[in-house]
Amino acid sequence: MVLESGIFACHAVWLLRTRHLRKEAKLAGETFDEYMARRHQSAAEELGEIAQKEGLGPMFSASADDEKTKSNGVDATASTKT
Description:
Blueprint (H helix, E strand, L loop, with lengths): L1 H16 L1 H10 L3 H22 L8 H10 L11
Helix pairs in contact: 2-3
């Protein structure tokens, strides 16, 4: 019973904390998940633009990981099968 009460309380807190986001999603005609996915994508694109302006290079892209492994002499595509 205590565990169920805790789960209920956590859900109630989540509903209170996200009420404005759920309202924006409803006004946009999207589900909460669709709205949040679009919002996170926009934030990631904005972060990439800021990084480029600041001269941070491809720090926030997949190519940065490739460059890092090449400089370490590690082949990221190598198979680890024995």
